[in-house]
Write a sequence for this structure.
């Protein structure tokens, strides 16, 4: 404690005066946060300068056997937040309405807030960030994106003097587990989803994960930070993985790729030199040599490309009680230090106010699988369907013969609108018997 | 500028009052810092809240054609640092004595310091950090370790509530380039070093890189942050790569490994439950499936293992003007925000004061290649040499016959002292004709 006493000597704050913490929610993450607060109290005190004291834990139902002293539990979250001896509120309830109300009332009372709530931040970032600014209160949310992986802080702080051009991430463990398993076993989506549920990697209602809502919320947060622009979940183009087939994975493997659900945040510079941003979530082919291709199972990874820094990658456990609690605790220590020493963490930065480019305007590459009649002129006809819509073809491969004849077309970068029009036109061609797979291709140069 | 005006309205500081910056040094990094300060002035102002104004650049020789207005240049670095209108000093000169003096005088005048100087920090961290504390001044040094890769901030802040057990990194681009090239071409160290020099990946005097001094300085900084303990370069056990042979690389390949110069910072818990830390730099075998094995060329990567977070990896460009400048600029924006809004970045944390374990006490695994006489009893004799020193063998492989007979021994984890005694004893055995390669093995579980 020499260190903290030494600090105390030139601070205005009394280091014996503890910093009060309220934890809202006692699920996987809340339980770990409470455990660390209790087990590591001495270390935390030394790192903050003053003791962190847990004032209470808001739960839906007070019951014995929650592994914490019963007197800490309360069902009255609002009263806990309002207590005079609570300086910092840790919100790990999940959901929208209740945490929104509690966070706003904490911030309006000048208390610091640490939250892991990506859905709330992606929908109400403006309201919450403004409440933090207005009250000069700290709002930290490292745990909201990619669990233990530090990516919020690097984007907000380490890259604060650089220009971020692209953020591409695997930010949802459930879908990555399913796609990794499909690639490995060759099984179908439905079968793999069931297996993922059985193993605890997918929730009873997996919609938020498999339809990309969770990834879209994280993409909105990442894009807001990367581009100094307020981006909400509604701004994110979103497709889930429920339509990905075993054939898609087989196709991917055949062309040296794999399929990943990507969260993509890109700066798109228009021909007139003006910047817009494109934020989207969808399953896409990426080459096996891409750094994200080897991120398997429930792991997360995020690639950030910035003008001066070049390409950075962050990798680790994107979910789970302990990893998420690690991120919460880092934020909590920083918020507590600010309470103790004075000062504030960086607030929202939205000055750039870049417009969102619609998905149709977004340049992507496509990989299209067609079953075709095996006769002369088919390739020329297919090529014309692309050319007519201004889509340049990178490679065409003919496979099989007779009934099994196929064309595999990979395009250069074109707008998503031109590409989807092309695919619609192909389906109408009399010698195209089926468009069996259409996948975007990301992570390549052209 | 709406954002900054809005902020101004509830701050005490006048946002029209610029924040003065002095840049010391105009090498690769300094040149990029100055370029970004000039090219991105509007963005930087919006992010800080006030304009950043470059007051001057200290250089050894003022001359035309440095790409910056000549009136900004000065050879009097001390006078530049002392100017009343300089709030933040960016030190990118390199070296020890001059930057030390300049940084101390800046901190003693209450100015914020951003530095990329790993050698200085690893030798004088105590003196400099204490000056920062005493004067309540900011000291930022993200650029000192692994260039653009955010690792200082994640260790200091994101993991502030967790317990870090291990940091393993490839933190020197020159040696990684050489080892990658040796693995790829099969060429010898000397030949590859020459090629690296020719390509600009090694300096005219490559000692600091190839003998591991640069990596050791970074290891000291990483260990200090990870373990809340002051660690200097002198505490780091250090071996360079100049003795790594083409045969070592071939051996590595044959056993599914590669050779990397690793910076290792580990918490070692003794049998009595007390923690010590081991900080070391040496070339070691790592399995090809280890995340660091695929980090090639001039790239850097750092793996951090923490109790709650699990294993995290950070990857990117570890050197070069622009990537290092990205890290400097992030620190500069944070330091400037603190000047503008009040508050301070986190200071040094050394409360844990863990003792340094000597290399002899450090548990490692060895991979030993022996040329032996081809006769009965040799394997038993060699095995006895290990067993007598308490070193448990994991695998032994016999290769070749007659003149070319070899034994390849891989040990379990044992103290480095016991292992080196064993190797010394092996060399004395009459039927061991040569100990051709002794390499530590890292990144495995046992």
């Amino acid at each position: 404690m020499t260190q903290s006493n030494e600090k105390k000597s030139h601070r205005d704050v009394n280091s014996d005066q503890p910093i009060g913490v309220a934890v809202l929610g006692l699920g996987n993450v809340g339980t770990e946060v409470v455990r660390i607060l209790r087990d590591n109290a001495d270390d935390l005190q030394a790192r903050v300068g003053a003791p962190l004291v847990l004032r209470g834990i808001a739960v839906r139902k007070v019951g014995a056997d929650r592994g914490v002293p019963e007197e800490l539990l309360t069902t009255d979250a609002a009263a806990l937040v309002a207590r005079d001896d609570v300086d910092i509120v840790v919100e790990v309830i999940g959901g929208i309405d209740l945490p929104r109300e509690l966070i706003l009332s904490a911030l309006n009372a000048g208390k610091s807030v640490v939250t892991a709530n990506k859905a709330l931040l992606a929908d109400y970032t403006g309201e919450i960030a403004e409440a933090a600014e207005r009250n000069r209160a700290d709002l930290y949310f490292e745990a909201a994106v990619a669990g233990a992986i530090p990516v919020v802080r690097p984007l907000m702080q380490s890259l604060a003097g650089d220009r971020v051009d692209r953020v591409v991430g695997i930010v949802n463990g459930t879908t990555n587990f399913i796609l990794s398993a499909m690639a490995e076993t060759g099984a179908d989506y439905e079968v793999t989803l069931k297996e993922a549920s059985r193993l605890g990697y997918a929730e009873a209602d997996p919609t938020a994960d498999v339809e990309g809502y969770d990834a879209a919320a994280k993409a909105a947060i990442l894009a807001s930070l990367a581009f100094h622009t307020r981006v909400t979940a509604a701004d994110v183009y979103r497709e889930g993985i429920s339509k990905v087939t075993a054939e898609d994975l087989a196709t991917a493997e055949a062309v040296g790729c794999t399929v990943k659900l990507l969260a993509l945040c890109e700066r798109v510079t228009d021909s007139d030199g003006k910047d817009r941003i494109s934020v989207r979530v969808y399953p896409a082919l990426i080459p096996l040599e891409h750094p994200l291709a080897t991120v398997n199972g429930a792991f997360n990874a995020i690639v950030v490309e910035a003008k001066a820094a070049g390409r950075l990658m962050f990798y680790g456990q994107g979910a789970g009680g302990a990893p998420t609690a690690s991120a919460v605790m880092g934020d909590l220590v920083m918020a507590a230090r600010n309470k103790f020493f004075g000062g504030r963490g960086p607030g929202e930065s939205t000055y750039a106010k870049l417009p969102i480019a619609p998905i149709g305007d977004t340049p992507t590459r496509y990989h299209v699988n067609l079953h075709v009649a095996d006769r002369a002129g088919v390739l020329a006809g297919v090529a014309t369907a692309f050319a007519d819509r201004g889509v340049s073809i990178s490679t065409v491969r003919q496979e099989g013969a007779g009934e099994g004849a196929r064309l595999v077309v990979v395009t250069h970068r074109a707008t998503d609108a031109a590409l989807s029009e092309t695919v619609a036109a192909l389906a109408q061609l009399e010698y195209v018997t089926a468009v069996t797979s259409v996948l975007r291709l990301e992570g390549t140069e052209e």
